[in-house]
Fold these 2 entries.
Entry 1:
Amino acid sequence: MRVTPGRGGEAERRAQSASEAFEEATGARLMGIVNATPDSFSDGGRYLDPAAAIAHGLELAQEGAAIIDVGGESTRPGAQPVSESEECARVLPVIEGLVAAGVPAQLSIDTCKAGVARRALAAGATFVNDVSALRADPQMAACVAESGAECCLMHMRGRPRTMQRDPRYGDVVAEVKRFLAERLELALAAGIAERRIVLDPGIGFGKTVAHNLALLARLDELATLGRPLLIGVSRKSFIGAIGAAASGSEEPLAVDRRLAGTIAANVLAYERGARIFRVHDIAPARDALALAAATLAGDE
Ligand code: HH2
């Protein structure tokens, strides 16, 4: 419970929401994923029905998500592109429904299309998660700047359909850092306020298992860019690969067996400076990161 000054000078007690309590304990925010798609790699088809997506978003917020990220187009390798009207038809009812239900979280639109972002922002979203870092649509930078929304700029090599075809880097961390610094400059020049920009190395976007591990291990080098780092490792295939290797299996761990690896990667990313965690499973991430924060603080 937190004490806040009430009207007329009276102290008024109010219960903290789960996300406020989490942020106070860790200095971090959780971003819960709601994919209103038929083909997302881990939850495709589960939340295509708006009522199911809205109920799921409300549950994630109640568990501690400060941000609910609503997406209508899968970015998994090989995913088929979706038209603007189809994407809007998938995400707008979800955003409108969450707003109408009074969801206690900020709403994010996961899109590369300015037309989708504009309509989502008009419906109540206040965060634009653009995995192309404002490159896919020339209108996107102005759309974000005019709206005053927060935005995430993510590194991706190539495009989702082809990005996993033999990606190569000299020094992946240095290249991702240079890219993010350039995109940050571009966003600032377009009039997006610096305090509204977060950066993301794009785990799994045009990267091998080794590239993903190098980015996680050396995340502190990206933290020097001076903006909060968002990290999205949840259920991704490198976790399946590492888990399989450690258990002597030829097959990658199934998507529903990647929670432990997701948590390990998020905790290590937190220690190295990540401050926004994009996850499918909020409650376990919340508990693990709270423990990590308390341990790092050396609480007695
Ligand atoms: N990962 C995915 C989608 N959007 N956005 C950011 N900022 N960072 C990420 O790492 C990221 C993202 C892929 O995950 P998911 O949404 O679960 O799958 P799909 O793209 O198949 O819908």
Entry 2:
Amino acid sequence: MLEGKKFILGISGGIAAYKCAQLTRLLVKEGAEVQVIMTKLAKEFITPLTMATLSKRPILVDFFNPENGDWNSHVDNGLWADGMIVAPATANTMGKMANGIADNLLITTYLSARCPVFVAPTMDLDMYKHPSTMRNLETLRSYGNELIEPESGELASGLIGKGRMAEPEAIVEYLKAYFKKKANKDLDGKKILVSAGPTHEKIDPVRFIGNYSSGKMGFAIAEELAERGAQVTLVSGPCALKITNSNVKRIDVVSAAEMNEACKNEFSNSDVAIMSAAVADYSPVEKADQKIKRKSDELSIALKSTVDIARGLGEKKRSDQFLVGFALETNDALDNARNKMASKNLDMIVLNSLADTGAGFNVDTNKITILSQQNKMKEFALKSKAEVAVDIVNELVGLL
Ligand code: CTP
């Protein structure tokens, strides 16, 4: 996967710089080319001679060679690379990357790079946890940079916790998986509608009926689809999540009725629709204009059923369209899911059973079973929602 790929390895000044010797060796062994750029402090942790020998190229530190005035063009380097790895990324270097403080060749190259950037932080325990580090990491993520999470273990200070730079083998695995995914554009040109999150049904100006859905599953699916080349429209109920992929058009809605309107409008222009939202089944008949005051011991609010969005799309579905639904069940999970698939005219249904620990709302993991036409069924292990999204999309691609 890395054969012929060109990498800039930006080394900043942390003790984990010693791991860059092994990282470079592994990359070269995979058939990649490596151009090392070091900060001045990095040279104190690992010698330029070691890095030049392993990378088979002179390393770069300064903007120009003081001996002959040769310019080390950060722009050319930035354009040359298929990927830039900043490892170890110290708090200082990440702060400069996040804020565009271009006082060394590593940062000017970073600012000029058009390729994906992989950041492998290294830090002591409390430095890593500090709000400024967290904010810088968030900023780098928002620029689309890939974060290769540090590992937990004994740190140089003797403290134990998160902050050790990922091992070279883990970094190489990360890069392989990234480029494999990039080559895997199996949804190129497909238009896909995804609904996600809860809906809020207004009771009065300060209250609503909602549910515990965080939107994480639907957002992870939207990101995965977009990574694989699809043009995604994400209709999202109220949730605090962000989408990073620019191939996702996001439409924010609040109520089931608004979600229905948005999904109906988008569906005719979609090849696939994935309904992962936890839509309220009932909404207050009256929505009070003024705050409802406490008057008696009991209060009843009359509710009327909302539109079933998935069912509506199922009724309109053309033969060239594919409709995926979700089922969240507490009992008789398989039977209920099969019935939902039939009654809503779905082509595939993703079942989450609340009987499984780690599945369902407001957690980072999920355990699913996928049912499709002709009584096909596939069970999956408990995984992170990002990994579950990959399974769902793989299954979808297989069925399309
Ligand atoms: N759904 C929808 N519109 C609704 C309710 C549900 O589009 N008003 C969709 C969900 O997004 C999901 C599927 O229908 O893809 C099943 O949702 P679920 O809440 O499990 O089922 P319901 O049909 O609401 O049935 P019940 O609540 O009785 O289990």
